[in-house]
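REQUEST
  id: r-88c1
  op: predict_structure
  target: TelA-like protein associated with cryptic tellurite resistance
  payload:
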Amino acid sequence: MVQEISLADLTRGSSTAQPADLTGTVATATNGAASVLAPAGAALTPENTLEQQLANLPEADRARIQQMADSIDLTKNGIESSYAKDVQRSTSTFADDILAKVRSKDTGQAGELLQNLLTTVDSAELGPIRNIPILGGLINSADKLRRRYQKVSSQIDEIVGKLEAQQTRLVSDIALYDTMYQQNAEQYKQLKMYVLAGKSALHDFRANQLPKLEAEAAASSDPMQAQVLTDFKSKLDRFAKRLDDLDRVSVVALQTAPQIKIIQNADQTIVDKIDTTISTTIPVWKSQMVIALGLENQRKALDLQRQADDVTNRMLQQNARILHQGAVDAEKANQRGVIDIDTIEKVNNELISTLRETVQIQKEGKANREAAEVKMRQIETDLKNALIANAQQMH
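RESPONSE
  id: r-88c1
  status: 200
  body:
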């Protein structure tokens, strides 16, 4: 039952402190997972009045909230700013602890290690992503392949060690998020209990006590009593604002719950991925490496055999060509006469031509001599006649 107060109590200010066991009462009242939540399907809208919200709670929770509401002294100095301050302080302290733990960790290291692992394997042109189920293009030199495997293998072993350490850290984080989720749920419940208790106390005070104070101020001959009442109403408004702030914080706490689970599930996914990589991907890669080495040795043996076969075939073909040409040339030489008929024929033709030309030259020479002799006789006759004529003319 709320104690009756007067305007005189407002001017003095109550020295009654908020009960020390109020937080304990709230903690006891929040053992149920959904004791301060509306039933499924009941939307938290402005239409849900305080009476409706309280009516949706179990009887035990309503009794505890009423006990808390009866313990609230709205005349206490500073209650509009100190109400439920312990809950807010514990929320801040818990958040600081979580931030300190998260700040000391490299939250992106696991993803970077996985990416480095894939990059290291893939850079060797032997990674399971590229070579399973088809190995792809093999490296020409088996020695080069082995050296590359040894280099990449040591890098992978180092990364796997870091992944295992990161996996252990993520498992620890998952447990931390469980604690964080439970703590957040507990804070949400406490805030809702404080809000409902404060709203209930404020509602009862405005319904029962405030009209009496207004009547007392109206009947008083002291005009300052009206100012006292006005100041107290302002205090009640600030208390209502305080409850609204706490209510908003409780909504944020409610929103934080799925956020924590999302982060926790993401960490669990990374843990599972690391486990799969270490237990499956790496062994598969190593087995494929053994297959790659075997296939490379096989390819080299086949290349050597193919080269030997090619050399043998080329040698046989070349020898066959040489043998054929040699036999043909030998037989041609054997069947050839000492003097070719063409040569004899040519010589005979040259000889006949020589004889014919010689006879013709002789005939022409004889004819030329006979003609010359005739001409010489004519020259002599002409010269003789000329001399005679010349002599006659001189007499």
